[in-house]
Amino acid sequence: MKSLLLGLVGVMALPALAGPDEFPRTASGKPDFSGRYDIATLTPYTRRGGAEAPQYIDTEAAAQWENGAVRRYENSMRDRDPNRGPPPKGGNVDARSYDPVWFDQGLKMFEIGGRIPTSIIVDPPNGQIPPPSEEAIARWRARQESRDENRGRYDNPENLSLQDRCLYLGHVSVPALPVVYNNIKTIVQTDDHVMILIEWMHWARVARLNAEHLPDDMRSLAGDSIGWWEGDTLVVETTNFFSSPGVPDQGRRVVERFSPLTKDSLLYRFTVHDPNRTAPYTGEMPWPRTESKMYEYACHEGNYSMFNTLRGARAQERAALALEDESSDAD
Asked: Distance (Å, rounded) from C-alpha 6 to C-alpha 258?
């Protein structure tokens, strides 16, 4: 264990920035981003600790974060020893849906340019996503009230969210962000297209290079992506979203920038322009290459949780009807 803790400190630093001839290139001379990347990281998406939290920390503070994550993981796994005895009478029983072994959130913080940031979000400088506008809050509340008046959340499978149904998770697909597991991204690059395969929910994004956006009325969950080169940086712009089927996400625009960072990693930087927020926001993180394979994401095909959720709702409805019948008989 001691060697593991010490080893974590040693793997935090990324290699020196790649020279122009060190990063792989295509036959046309552009940086070749094709390959698999594991973006699991202990660095949080937004900064923790409030307004006084530092934007960067030193290696000693980062090691404390990393070693703490290792200890939490080992403590949680200790409770799952198959040879352990029963819990004490009256004690707590951990009934979480997943054991920690199934999570892959990373055990180290990343470093960019010799500095260790405390969040992926770098702008605004406080490391937080700007709050929603008052108009956006009002629209969301009106939509929720209308939905609640006309249907119950568990009336049928279509009323459950696309995330509940294991179909799509937009806020980690565009932009492409780390999640609790399935953090591998695969890039396939040609002279005309770039495909980014997101392991979490197995979503393939295709950006057409040197093309125009589709008409405004042609929308999709992941939007319409086009790309172009600015020197050695691949820029991908995505528009034409809808936030849910039939609900256009007007004005939302995401700009992603992929740049060589080291010979074995790229720098991923994104800016989200969202009219529902009071200001744009920007984040950045390294994407290290990996030899690990991407797993099939078969959650939808094996989603017994949704089936059991709906079955539980029907059982509650039957119980409520039985109480009504008993009350009527008593009258």
From this structure: 32
Helices (H) and strands (E) in the chain, counts: 4, 14
> Strands 203-209 and 193-198: what pairing?
antiparallel
Each of the 331 residues of the chain gets a pLDDT tens digit; together they read 333 433 343 444 444 455 556 899 999 999 999 999 999 999 999 999 987 899 999 999 999 999 999 998 887 777 677 887 887 888 776 666 666 777 888 999 999 999 999 999 999 999 999 999 999 899 888 877 776 666 777 888 888 888 888 888 887 899 999 999 999 999 999 999 999 999 998 899 999 999 999 999 999 989 999 999 999 999 999 999 987 655 668 899 999 999 999 999 999 999 999 999 999 999 999 999 999 999 888 888 888 888 898 999 999 999 999 988 777 777 6
Q: Distance (Å, rounded) from C-alpha 237 to C-alpha 252?
A: 11
Q: In the block, which residue shows the tokens 């994550």?
A: 69
Q: If you write DSSP's letter for every residue of 201-222 in order, what string do you get?
A: TTEEEEEEET-PPPPTT--BTT
The angle that helices 2-10 and 59-78 make with each other, rounded to 10 degrees, is: 140
Q: Which two tokens stand for residue 56?
A: 């960067």
Run of H or E residues at 309: helix 304-330
